[in-house]
Design goal:
The protein folds into 2 domains: 135 residues, Fructose-1,6-Bisphosphatase, Chain A, domain 1 (2-Layer Sandwich); 112 residues, 3-Layer(aba) Sandwich (D-Maltodextrin-Binding Protein, domain 2), CATH 3.40.190.80. Helix content is 33%, strand content 25%. The N and C termini lie far apart (37 Å).
């Protein structure tokens, strides 16, 4: 039986997103320096300072909890509870002035995501999902939409460049089977699945801070999030992600991915 996520953790996750907002808003559409990390991805002072603000709150409130952040790494990794943070998921969108990035806050218990927040500071939009609770968008309940046919589905992926050669073939097969494919958005695409505007998001090479928060948000809205083999995501998952607004599409989506990779 799924344990219900305590309300105090949900309230605290909102406080973490609140702490990141002023940092992000202060730097958005300003001429800030952009550095390149070892993986060739961009990073700014907004990423680093927003994560620092959240980590400080966690250390002060739950010192026995672990933290896994994109910018400042991992601490207390053996803890039962770990907060997984991506201060700006979609830094490329952020530095080009497009408000389709998001702050991701997740809480995992024994490696399993039980709480997630997707926060868009500029548009003042926030999705919150947790085990045992329905997902909300700005405090109003949201639901994924029913779409049992791939041919009618709207599919989203941040970029086809994230896939290796074999994955590109699999992605192309699923894209061909889907009704429409759009690109861009990072975590924002998953938020739109939760709100019923997108039916599928398929991506690869994601890190725990990219996907842990997405799982409770979409599942609490009635959808599913797995890897490409249909297995539940944990903090140790490889990073291939298949998010569906209508879980009944999972066999067909997996079949298309599998056929494309042969």
């Amino acid at each position: 039986m799924t344990k219900v996520c305590p309300e105090e953790f949900i309230e605290f996750a909102n406080a973490l997103a609140d702490a990141a907002r002023p940092v992000i808003r202060r730097h958005f559409r300003t001429p800030i320096a952009v550095d390149t990390k070892s993986d060739e991805s961009p990073v700014t002072i907004a990423d680093r300072d927003a994560e620092t603000a959240m980590r400080s709150l966690i250390a002060a409130t739950y010192p026995d909890h672990g933290i896994f952040g994109e910018e400042h790494g991992r601490s207390n990794s053996d803890a039962q509870y770990t907060w997984v943070l991506d201060p700006i998921d979609g830094t490329k969108a952020f530095i080009t002035g497009r408000p389709i990035f998001g702050t991701l806050v997740a809480l995992v218990r024994d490696g399993i995501p039980i709480l997630g927040v997707i926060d868009q500071a500029i548009l003042d939009e926030r999705w919150v999902g947790a085990t045992g609770h329905v997902t909300t968008f700005n405090n109003a309940v949201v639901e994924t939409r029913r779409c049992s046919s791939l041919a009618k589905a709207i599919m989203n992926s941040t970029s086809p460049d994230m896939f290796d050669a074999a994955e590109k073939s699999a992605f192309a097969a699923l894209s061909k089977a889907a009704g429409t494919t759009i690109y861009g958005g990072d975590c924002y695409g998953y938020a739109l699945v939760a709100s019923g505007f997108v039916d599928i998001v398929v991506e690869s090479d994601l890190k725990p801070y990219d996907f842990c928060a997405l799982v409770p948000v979409i599942e609490g809205a009635g959808g599913s999030v797995t890897d490409w083999n249909g297995e539940p995501l944990t903090i140790d998952s490889a990073g291939d992600v298949l998010a569906l607004g209508d879980a009944s599409m999972l066999p067909a989506a997996m079949s298309a991915l599998s056929a494309g990779s042969e």
